[in-house]
Amino acid sequence: MTETVQIEESDSWLEAFEALEHADKDSPTWLIPFRKAGLAQYAKTGLPTLRDEDWRFTNIDPIRKTAFRPTLAPGILEAAMLDGIPYPLKTGNAARLVFLDGHFQRELSDMSKLPQNVTSLSMKDAVAREDLRLDQHLGQYTYHHDNPFAALNAAFFQDGFYLNIPKNLQIETPLHIIHLSSGNDAQASFARFFIRAGEFSKCTILESHHALSEGIYLNAPTTEFVVENEANIEHIKIQDESKQAFHLASVYAHVGRAAQFHSHYLNMGGRISRNNIRTKLNGEGLECVLNGLYLADGDQLSDNHMIVDHSKPHCDSHEYFNGILDDKARGVFHGRILVQQIAQKTDAKQTNKNLLLSNDATADTKPQLEIYADDVKCTHGATIGQLDDEAIYYLRTRGVPKAVAQQMLVHAFAGEIIDRIHHELIREELDEVVWTRLEKFAHFQNVSTT
């Protein structure tokens, strides 16, 4: 039965691929086999089922039953439409990249705040530049075999962005990547990003995803980070899309010696959302922090799946993910710390906490350690629970109303994640974003104010 489903899925995407080949005749010769390899990899597995171990908590039948169409041609985004989106850093001092359905919107983007020696151009332009040699780099840090949506991205991406930060450049101005989805029914967008941080460089990158309407669509971006020796990258991602949307993102980071890679995730939107995060720690003395908060209500499902690969000694990694779930929402955390035999003196920690605001909300958590070295310090843990009645009672005995007491506890729970963001302005704005979102949860609408 599974094989039949896979053949049907492969045929559906094969038709879309034929349309892409017909419309994409001007691409460089190396890109065609790159795309075909992605489609072939997808065809081997099709979409995952609950029988696949890495997906056993996440039922994507609603995606399987929808005939999505890749967005091959760029749409037109008017400035007024962008102004209507309440995105962070709206009034802040930031460079800005704007995308609509995976296509770069040059006229609404502003790179003037970045230094001139930063190489920044759309992915459509980058693949045509022979001097960038993307044929030798694009896809070298991904693992298509473990993620069918990354494989589809390789096959169908039309645009995205290429960013190269040169050696020694310390960029104080954050770069904000704004993804907008038109929400047209059954559209699929596959934006592609390649970000290289040269040795001793530094940059803050904010990535946010928003919807212009409440339609059903698929958003499956792929980002490759190459963080070279002693570089410092802080990446903050906000996902606040349509409650009918499907967000299946892939992030791959290759981190060098003594570098710092801190990546933060705030997931609030989407009917089904999943972050596939893979980091390869490929140099001694580096630090990798993966830090996430997922908020879900209604029938939303938020899934966070990550592997941290310690392939060199003397590296630190820390993963902190908190979930706040209401109504019939589901949260999934599936994390694995892999310590190779050579990776002695590893210091790794993995923690997942889930707060259930409803008796119908559920959380599935699976933190894992896979260790082949013998001189390491590794810990992992997970909790699932409801608000602490004793803590609420303690606050109420001191004159705090019940609703306010619960809000204080939930805010503190979310604050554990938000407080780890280094960039002060982004941290403050996201704290407000989180609280505005939580105030709309049914739990806080129904709780007594006395």
List the helices and strands and how they pair.
Blueprint (H helix, E strand, L loop, with lengths): L1 H22 L7 H15 L15 H4 L4 E2 L8 H5 L11 E6 L2 E2 L14 E4 H4 L21 H9 L3 E6 L9 E7 L5 E3 L2 E6 L4 E10 L5 E3 L2 E6 L4 E9 L5 E10 L4 E8 L4 E10 L5 E10 L4 E10 L5 E10 L4 E10 L7 E10 L5 E10 L5 E9 L3 H8 L5 H17 L5 H15 L3 H5 L4
Parallel strand pairs: 1-7, 2-6, 5-8, 6-9, 7-10, 8-11, 9-12, 10-13, 11-13, 12-14, 13-15, 14-16, 15-17, 16-18, 17-19, 18-20, 19-21, 20-22
Antiparallel strand pairs: 2-3, 4-5
Helix pairs in contact: 1-2, 2-6, 7-8, 8-9
Description:
The protein has 450 residues and is an alpha/beta fold. It has a domain at 12-283. It is 23% helix and 36% strand. It has helices at residues 2-23, 31-45, 61-64, 79-83, 123-126, 148-156, 389-396, 402-418, 424-438, 442-446; strands at residues 69-70, 95-100, 103-104, 119-122, 160-165, 175-181, 187-189, 192-197, 202-211, 217-219, 222-227, 232-240, 246-255, 260-267, 272-281, 287-296, 301-310, 316-325, 330-339, 347-356, 362-371, 377-385. Strands 1, 4, 5, 7, 8, 10, 11, 13, 15, 17, 19 and 21 form a twelve-stranded mixed beta sheet that branches. The chain has a ten-stranded mixed beta sheet with strand order 3-2-6-9-12-14-16-18-20-22, with helices on one face. A hairpin with a 2-residue loop joins strand 2 (95-100) and strand 3. Helix 7 (389-396) crosses helix 8. It is globular, with a radius of gyration of 22 Å.
